[in-house]
Amino acid sequence: MDAKPGTRPKRDGAAAGNPDDVRGAGPGVRVQRSFEERDRPGTLYLVATPIGNLEDMTMRAIRTLREADLIAAEDTRQARKLLSHFGIRNRLVSYHEHNKDASGPELIRLLEEGRSIALVTDAGTPAVSDPGAELAAEAAARGIPVVPIPGANAALSALIISGLETRRFLFAGFPPRDRKGMIRFLDSLETEPGTIILYESPHRVLKTLEALAGRWGGRRMALVRELTKLHEEAVRGTVADVRDYAAAHPPVGECVLVIEGAAERPAGGAEEGDWWKPLTPAAHVAHYEGLGLDRREAMKRAAADRGLKKRDLYAALLAEADAGPDKP
User: Fold this and answer.
1) Mean pLDDT of the chain
2) Which of 85, 87, 89, 139 could bridge to 144 as Cys pair (CB 3.0-4.6 Å)?
3) Same domain for 319 and 283?
4) Helix axes 310-323, 295-306, angle to 10 degrees
């Protein structure tokens, strides 16, 4: 059983938090022994909270929130509602994207003094696509024990009900908002063999599905929303079909997109990296222009796909234009 957050036992000589004092560890190696006795530093607890259904709160999470010296929350208003529901009275401070540069160092100082801090996000597991990751990384770099208090997680919950491969997967967070960023993002995932998991907000999900369909329209996917809530829904089909459904029935609530990886393509199908092969050079360039790139950037991308120099692609475009629709 883990040590209680509020305890102050006597420090052991090989305690976590003193990486240079761990027997047998080589240079550059830090060994965290999460529940070894020590006075300092304290412990940063990453406490998962429900993503919609309060019955998903664990007994360990409740105890940790009660016994920690203070709770750092991404949204203190949401956190107060949760704490009130479970009868938890504790000091609550704010830690979020807009104040992390100021509050982060203060939390680290308190941890180094021996305080225990429980970090919670709006919903789900902290440090996953939120600023808690930076606090956890800084604490770990300073030899401060970082301890997970597991619980609800939207990405894994969506994955296991998606009907797609679960042995290998990649969580890629929120896609970029700008078109060029989205293209680079999808390029980086083009040959990923594992199932891909994305988060997306309801007001952006249609644009993201359009971008996915333009690249991977035939792959299988699941759009999962309102996890653990009354209106929980999973929409399964090809990326193109799910896009069409979402266009006709705009999703409400935070969404998780679970997409088939490149290795899941049927045997004998085209390679993911060769999606452009059926296209003429002009249609290839037009594809990228349709994604929002200017002509110069679209030609650059098409040339890179085909392994050509830009001038060679330009020559191919001229030849195609000269041939015309009625010429061989």
Assistant:
1) 87
2) 139
3) yes
4) 100
| Residue 163 shares a structural domain with residue 146 | no
Q: Is the pLDDT score of 323 beyond 90?
A: no
Q: Which residues contact 311 (CB under 8 A, 6 or more apart)?
A: none
Q: Would strands 70-73 and 169-171 be described as parallel, antiparallel, or unpaired?
A: unpaired
Please give the residue that has the higher pLDDT: either 73 or 320: 73
Instruction: Give the Cβ contact number of residue 84 at 10 Å.
Output: 10
Residue 208 DSSP SS3: helix
b/e map of 206-223 (b: 16 or more CB within 10 Å)? Answer: eebbbbbbbbbeebbbbb
Give the distance, in angstroms, between the CA of residue 200 and the centroid of all CA atoms in the same chain.
10
Domain membership of residue 117 as a residue range: 34-152
The per-residue pLDDT for 263 is 54
144 & 102 share domain: yes
Q: Are 284 and 306 in contact (CB under 8 A)?
A: yes
For 221, the 3-state DSSP assignment is strand
Residue ending a domain, among 152, 172, 202, is 152
Co-location of 63 and 109 in the same domain: yes
User: Among 286, 279, 154, 264, which Cα is nearest to 216's?
Assistant: 264
Residue 80: what are its φ and ψ, rounded to 5°?
-65, -40
**Alpha-carbon dihedral sign for residues 315, 316, 317, 321:** positive
Rg (CA), the chain: 25
Count of domains in the chain?
3
Better pLDDT: 293 or 190: 190
Does 146 lie in the same domain as 93?
A: yes
Summarised one tens digit per residue, pLDDT across range 102-133 is: 999 999 999 999 999 999 999 999 999 888 99
pLDDT of residue 306: 80
CA dist 301 and 305 (Å) reads: 6
Q: Residue 228: which of 148, 149, 158 has the closest Cα?
A: 158
CA distance 164 to 265: 12
Of 239, 264, 289, the domain-final residue: 264
